[in-house]
Amino acid sequence: MRRSRGLTAALVLSLAGAGTGIGLVLMPEASAITPPVAFTADDLPTWQPNGIVFAMAQANGTVFAGGTFSAVRPPDGTSGAEQEAVNFVALDAATGKPTSCKLAFTIGDGSATVRALAVSKDKKTLYAGGYFGAVNGTPVSSVAAIDIESCTPKAAFHPGFPATVRDLAVTDDTLYAAGDFGTVEGQTRERFAAVDASSGALKPFVANADEPGRAIEITPDGKNALLGGDFFSVNGSNTHALAVVNATTGAVAKTYSNIPSNSVVKDIATDSTGFYTGNEGSGGGVFDGRIGLRLSDFSEKWRDRCLGATQAVLPYDGVLYSSSHAHDCSLEGQFPDGKRNFFNAQLTNYEGASPAPVDGFVRSPRKLGWHPTANDGLGEGIGPRAMTIAEKGDVKYMWAGGEFTAINGKPQQALTRFASTGDVGAPTTPVASAGSVKPGEVQVRWRTSYDADDSKLTYRIYRNGSATPIATVAAESLEWERPQASWNDTTVKAGQSYTYRVTATDAAGNTSALSATASVTVPSSVQSYPNQVRADGASLYWRYDDTVSPYVADSSEAGNTSGIQLNAPALRQTPGAISGASTAMGFNGTSQQVYSDHRQTVGSAFSVETWFKTNTTRGGKLIGFGNNTSRNSGSFDKQIYMTNTGRLVFGVYNGSTRTVSTGLFDTYNDNKWHHVVGTQGPAGMELIVDGQSKGTLNVTGSAAYEGYWHVGGDNLSGWPTKPTSNFFAGQIDETAVYPKALTAAQAKNHYDLAKAPSDTVSKVSATEDTYINQGAPSAANGASTSLAVRGTSAYETYLRFNLPAAPAGQVLKSAALQIKTSTQANAGTADKVSVVPVTGTWSGASTTFNNKPTLGTTPLGSFASVPDGSAVQSTPLDTAALSSVLGSSYGLALTSTGTDPLWIWSMESTAADAAPQLVLTFGPK
């Protein structure tokens, strides 16, 4: 039916990152979309039939669509009157509007339909197949030839097909047909036949099949015909759904026995090296996906076992585009059962060596970032059914037809199209967070964005409100797999606070909005518990300090396995399980959980660890591994769950459930924080609670499957002492997964470190501020939204803070002053700005240059200079000097001896992060 043409993919977006230091990494010049995808996912305005499109073809910039409909209408929201279109419409490939070519496919008895369209190689003749008796009144019998230039049926071409024709393929001199017929021109031709492309005379090609033919394609060398359908035999040879026969005689050349009996082939397409099938089935063990086969020997090279009937396949420039309603690609290691994906793109061949077979089949090459959305629509609720690619004015257009009534969330029936240029859709906004567990390092991390036609996105990280990114990172994501990306800022200073925002940009330059601000204060000393979890090799570490849904940040050093909140668990529950400011997450015990952001496998050695607090009497899963995300997993183990009485159970599945549990009266639903670790390795299984071993089991293996980590809930069906609820009601904190078995000593160390003293950070905003101006010596500026500093002529800024007393048992370990430059031009300064104590009396309402206060002579800190551009700036202050004034009201002045002014926001400003602020870090004595 279709053959791809070579359009060279020129540019591949490379992965780039800023490493661990400051710097803007230059990215390659953007292309319209991410190669090798050749089309955007942005649908173009297209006239739409009032029924179903089953077949498409194209020639010379015109697209032909056939099906079951009676009229076409303009795109919703545009002008124009509905036009009659009886089962056929011709449209301009570039505008989406009907052409002057009008053909009516009709029948005297029953309902006419067009099911197949094909164009001759010289682009002069359009062939149509289906169930119809006339074209514009010219008698035909389910097959017709139309002169494209004059848009008239060829009256001399009228081979007799007495039943529905479902597919056509054409060579220089032959038209091949597949369908429901048993005879052609009164001679036996069961489901497949060939006629002369000019006269319609029956040819000696015989490939008799016992069940309907649905697809036929001719190999590029013209020597063989590829047959697809429902059949179980061709010319007496056993072969189900797919066969290769001689293109001249129909003699069987290749049979197939590895397509399930409840599945059929709906479509076949070729490129220069292979051919591809689209498959559909029903019932258990169904095959609904796609097969890639070699033209050299017709053997299978890969099989895509996604579920969701495939109606059309179209290879183009190394990519196989398909129309289906794929809803479960678990067997391909991709998305689990759930949302329907109506359009997909994947490589036609592996970029390197093919992987080892899984269950006897080589998995398909990776899916690509091309995901226009559709809906089930009319008829069988299949969605899209046909595809073709047309070119006009150096632009390529992917056209799709089918049963759908919506595209990309907007009303659009039966036809749609996508161009090779003009990508206008921006990626979704990243969800960012930041964390720091030791001096000198901040981990900035974000959930990668989704872009419907770009899988490789460029992320820019902005610090402290600067308009210039501090780092640029490239990362990949797909609609169903948006893993965490991260970058370490190693230029930060202990005791200072920083803010970060992230944007995502696609290859066409479309940029998302800035993420919400992620704030962090760098500790003045190592935070014992989280640092040890990272040092012990956690590959997933969820601390639940997140401020927004649905993202749970992974704080492990390199795991980048974030979590997705389901049904809005309660955020930032206090107090958390460990000392310090870290918070926990609350779960309702009925529907809430967190699952990891990408599919993975678990090795033979692993550990799961978490803290929990509850008084539930309904039990529930604390943590476990399962093969689904938002739906109940069908495979699930490597889990810790609580029984109704509060006992803890750690279990794996290795053909049967194998568990270690706490004692009959060893219960933990006492509304106190508890620590639990489950490990499996070469020495077997062990359950450790609050630093104490609760039991071991000599079991070293568990079920091998791909899945996701779950916290707070998932299936528990069939497990010993199964609780009333699969879902846990209570609080969970500090969850970690390790690719090894933690030792009992390591688990005990974690439990003990949770009580280790931790830094306490106080952010103190100015309670009063003003500045004096030598040029206006009697003016009081306490109500101004900006403040100024300069030596000549003088500006001085005064800030007042109510300093807290040190927490019990702690001392001030570091202090920093944070200011933000204003948005006016040249707000920064090249001069040094000193921070000194105010020793005299002042107030915002009355202080002027004429009555300015006296200042101390010993600087508490300084800014060597401040760059232009509105951004937060910070400088450390003398800790000893501030320690002596804790618990009091204290004034600071900003002064300079230079001539270049500094302009900063005051506490009266409404700009983000505007108010001057002290960041005070207290720690153990």
Given the C-alpha coordinates, what overall shape results?
A: flat
Which percent bin holds the helix content? under 10%
Straight-line distance between termini: 79 Å
Count of beta strands: 70
| Gyration radius, rounded | 35 Å
Largest sheet: number of strands, sense, barrel closure:
8 strands, antiparallel
Q: Give the mean pLDDT.
A: 94
**Percent of residues in β-strands:** 35-45%
Structural class: mainly beta
Q: Could you state the oligomeric state of the chains shown?
A: single chain
Are there runs of 5+ residues with pLDDT below 50, and where? 1-31
Number of helices: 3
Written account of the structure:
With 925 residues, this protein is an all-beta fold. 2% of the residues lie in helices and 41% in strands. The chain contains 3 helices and 70 strands. The strands form 19 sheets. Strands 44, 47, 48, 50, 55, 56, 57 and 59 form an 8-stranded antiparallel beta sheet that branches. The protein has an 8-stranded antiparallel beta sheet with strand order 45-46-49-58-51-52-53-54, with no helix packed on it. A 5-stranded antiparallel beta sheet has the order 61-63-68-65-66, with no helix packed on it. Strand 27 (290-294) and strand 28 (300-304) form a beta hairpin. The longest helix is centred in the C-terminal third of the chain and has 10 residues, at 744-753. Mean pLDDT is 94; it is low at 1-31.
